[in-house]
Structure prediction request, 830 residues.
Amino acid sequence: MRQCGAVMNKDTEIGIKTLPGGATTPEGFVASGVVCGVRNSSGRRDLGLLFSDRGCTSAAVFTRNVVKGAPLLVTQEAVEAGGVRAVVANSGYANAATGRKGLEDAREMQALAAEALAVEAGEVAVASTGVIGEHLPMRRISAGIEDAAAGLSRDGAGFAEAILTTDTRIKEAADRVEVGGELVTVGGTAKGSGMIHPNMGTMLAFMTTDAAVEKGCLQEILGAATERTFNRVTVDGDSSPSDMAVLLANGAADNDPITASSPDYPAFAVAVEDVARRLAKEIARDGEGATRLVEVVVEGAGDEASASALAKAVVGSSLVKAAAFGEDANWGRVLTAMGYSGVRFDADTVELWFGPVKVFENGEPVAHEETEANAALSSGEVRITARLNEGDASAAAWGCDLTYEYVRINGSYRT
Amino acid sequence: MRQCGAVMNKDTEIGIKTLPGGATTPEGFVASGVVCGVRNSSGRRDLGLLFSDRGCTSAAVFTRNVVKGAPLLVTQEAVEAGGVRAVVANSGYANAATGRKGLEDAREMQALAAEALAVEAGEVAVASTGVIGEHLPMRRISAGIEDAAAGLSRDGAGFAEAILTTDTRIKEAADRVEVGGELVTVGGTAKGSGMIHPNMGTMLAFMTTDAAVEKGCLQEILGAATERTFNRVTVDGDSSPSDMAVLLANGAADNDPITASSPDYPAFAVAVEDVARRLAKEIARDGEGATRLVEVVVEGAGDEASASALAKAVVGSSLVKAAAFGEDANWGRVLTAMGYSGVRFDADTVELWFGPVKVFENGEPVAHEETEANAALSSGEVRITARLNEGDASAAAWGCDLTYEYVRINGSYRT
Prediction:
């Protein structure tokens, strides 16, 4: 029997079809987003509902921050107790560091959504994102939940907007894959922008599927996918009290439930990881103030954990990020970041590339046209590659450049 | 017998007198700094010599980055082999990631300085700071060493300037303390600015004393002081391949050599730590683009290591740094950074202050005038205090705000 959690590489022969849409692309899911005036007076949607027309198995992963927002406690309880089939989420306030009243507010949000959707409170996940340490305006939240329930639709695009904070655009992805002779769909929407770092920094991701999946496997698949996707994104090194990724599986595709021993387990897991990766990259690309996506790939490492730690150190370096903004192929900063990643390696056998331009090998610089290396940094997607000569493991991590705009946004976020 | 390394707290009765000056304030030290054209064509001093007129015991600590510049290897060899009594240092090029030729260049710098000073090569420490991955212009270095040797003086102020990179001012400190009936002096100069982080991020510190100190004790005293001072500074989270702190003790004060059992061991250790702390704070205050020094103090922790980890996480948070720039008393970001520090604590028993204004306790916000809390961020020195209720340990860490100017400097450093 195959071990549950053995996610295969995408290079293997699994036919995944990319679809338009997001969290409501799988069968049986509806969503909505409304303006309830929590976020500010901008008229942007700030409260959303996501709902499955039938019961679900559900899985979730949460921030590792010691400080956890009240909604996470409520959602964790619900996911552990049984099957979550709905999500209520608001932007504007994170409802974190809000004491006992914050917890009461999160439970009330859950109860209000359950009532509006005619389901049990324990079937509703709650998520909040925004300013820390202020209480939710519950009258507005309550009115918003009623409006959102009335506006649920298969299109549901407003939901993706309602969860945004300083994000500049919605983030959605969907894939279709064959499982046990049935076509199943995986979809999702996410928000990111600031306070983004491995281990779920102010990131919300709501993923859905119409596949039927056994609960334990669903959790393993989400955990493994998160490790390789959302936890490989960094915007500014800060991880937040509010981060979570939720995956709801409603079985509308009528497949035999996927278990650890299903032949199609890998295909489904790869589809989930692919959707998560596309959302993760969109989060990195839309980091606060970002002008470009930076992808760091480490190849030839002895193991994936080392490759991942190296890639994350490079993509998280303020100096590498500022160099990416300045279109300066400053490979010394890349090597330096690898050096403090905590991973032991031999700098004399490392090779470094900016885009297609090799800039370092055998412990010293490779003669190259600096203009070509700088040009590799001038597009909307930058790739920095480090090749060790230790083994076959590789990992990618994603981030963005550090810009004046990041400083402006975060120097005046609350005012 | 007292354990070597048991540095007493400054609150104990040790009379330290602050002196003007720096690395040449202790008896018997001379220094110089010259323009040799390594750094750029700005006409700023870029090569310096520091020299004791008699033999020294010596100690050094180095970056923990896996990638180490060639000068560190040469200096480490010299310090381990015996007594270093001279330092040759340049700015402009770090001589790191420069392969075999880089190591040859560092050894040649050492030999040239030894010849100019008429000492053994093994008595000379070598330090380089600046761009990574380019070879030193050895003809200029050689001419500069000759000029610097000819210009050595007791004043020696040019040395402090010669080691600067993007620093905006020199950093010096000196203290006098009584040891065994003799007055001994400790002095030092340092450079910092970018790529500064705990574990010696692009930081050079050259400290001196006219005390006689047994070599093993000198190393312990420097190591302990570094842990509490230089390693508590962060500018941008990047630690560099080139960092080192060196401490030379020449015995010109004629005291009985300080050993682990000397009654005055603590007084001397406190003086070294005090000089190191003042240099460390100047490094933080002069961080790239900084407009203010941020001091984070964690009190009431169970142990000093936890207090230190919490303080360093807060002072290193990009979001806290940007909030300091924006004069926004965003305590949620402080609590969040503590939450991802890796230290377990109970958020419900934490108290937070911005300057004198308490903003958080009992797990939720304390009503306060936001203008007062913001005002605590508007001066040149900002203090953020977190009090746990777990024990008596405390620690401070120092950093600076994150500004547009940081992005400008690091987006165009090499061009």
Observations:
- Chain A touches chain B through 69 residues (CB under 8 Å).
- Residues 1-12, 196-201 of chain A have pLDDT under 50 and may be disordered.
- The CA atoms of residues 20 and 234 of chain A lie 26 Å apart.
